[in-house]
Design brief:
69% helix, 5-stranded parallel beta sheet, alpha/beta, 341 residues, single chain, 11 helices, Rossmann fold, 2 domains
Length: 341
């Protein structure tokens, strides 16, 4: 397991050095950490087995895993209730609640399978477990690597000639706290680049939504001017409706003004890594900086971003799930052709 961990860690380092804005890097890292955890658990079992208590250690390890999942389920459900209470009953705000209920239902089903001893129930348990395990591993890889990526960009990002702040919606035509956190972080990146000898411009990117009285870019520019940013350093991009258009339209605006070089894109932390993936697809040089978000808002928002990543790469998900389901299909065929007596 140590050799396997070392192999995937090397893959992770190489991938990051080439371009850190890829999901594969997070997967390589999580596989390496999984092998390390497995090796550590085997070492613990070896020590306890020498003392004739290996079975107790195994049961204790499984018990801790179950407790962790139960705690996670409770936290997700409580967070979902908080989201509905503070942000309203919209589908994106129900994600953590829905995931918590789904995990809880799967636990109940798995326990019922153990007590009933039905092969039909076992088949459905395994059928459900495969995609759940795949998505859970992917989400954990996303969360861990997203945090690592943002830590790295804050530490090693370096000065840039352009700062781009992505819009996130207005409330009554004004900048709400979520968007203000992006603008404040954008000003900080701009000031840091100026301190290192650059003369950056700041692009505010966001169009007018159907429920908004003016473009997001106009309100964002007004907020920056009131915060002390020189109007001559602010560029408004006011036609975008989503992140892909934010980046594409900003690239056109910068090209039309003859502005090139590395760019620092600023958004909220839950949205940062997916923005980095889209930034790479748009062939923009630079990195993404994440601004702080209210803790209660982060779980549902992060789940939403991960779902969007899966949506953006459907064939990879379909093929991977198909491969992981092969052992289950083989087991089902074997049991069907050789039914237990």
């Amino acid at each position: 397991m140590l050799w396997a961990a070392a192999f995937f860690f090397v893959l992770f380092i190489v991938r990051v050095l080439i371009d850190p804005r890829v999901m594969r890097a997070g997967v390589y890292l999580m596989v390496a950490l999984t092998f390390l955890a497995g090796e550590a658990f085997l070492q613990v079992l070896t020590v306890f087995s020498a003392r004739d208590s290996g079975a107790y250690a195994l049961v204790a390890g499984l018990g801790l895993g179950v407790v962790f999942v139960l705690v996670l389920v409770v936290m997700l459900i409580l967070n979902g209730v908080t989201m509905l209470r503070r942000e309203g009953r919209r589908l994106p705000n129900m994600l953590s609640l829905g995931v918590g209920i789904l995990f809880g239902a799967e636990i109940i089903w798995a326990v019922a399978t153990l007590f009933v001893g039905s092969y039909v129930m076992l088949f459905w348990t395994m059928t459900i477990f495969v995609p759940t395990a795949y998505v859970s591993f992917g989400f954990l890889s996303y969360v861990v690597y997203s945090g690592l990526y943002q830590w790295g960009t804050r530490l090693l990002g370096g000065p840039v000639g352009t700062v781009v702040v992505l819009g996130s919606g207005l409330i009554d035509g004004q900048v709400p706290p979520l968007l203000a956190s992006r603008l404040n972080r954008g000003r900080a990146v701009m000031a840091s680049s100026q301190a290192k000898g650059k003369s950056p411009v700041i692009v505010v990117s966001g169009g007018k939504g159907s429920d908004e009285t003016r473009p997001e870019a106009a309100a964002m520019a007004e907020y920056l001017v009131k915060s002390g940013v020189e109007p001559s350093r602010i560029i408004e991009e006011d036609r975008s409706r989503n992140t892909e258009e934010n980046l594409a339209n900003t690239e056109l605006v910068l090209s039309s003004r003859g502005i090139s070089g590395r760019v620092a894109v600023v958004t909220n932390n839950f949205h940062a890594f997916r923005s980095a993936l889209l930034m790479r697809q748009a062939k923009m040089k630079g990195y993404v900086i994440g601004a702080p978000t209210a803790r209660y808002y982060w779980p549902s928002a992060s789940i939403r971003e991960f779902v969007a990543i899966i949506r953006d790469h459907p064939w990879f998900t379909i093929v991977t799930l198909g491969v992981t389901w092969l052992p289950l299909v083989a087991m089902t065929l074997y049991v069907t052709l050789n039914p237990p007596t």
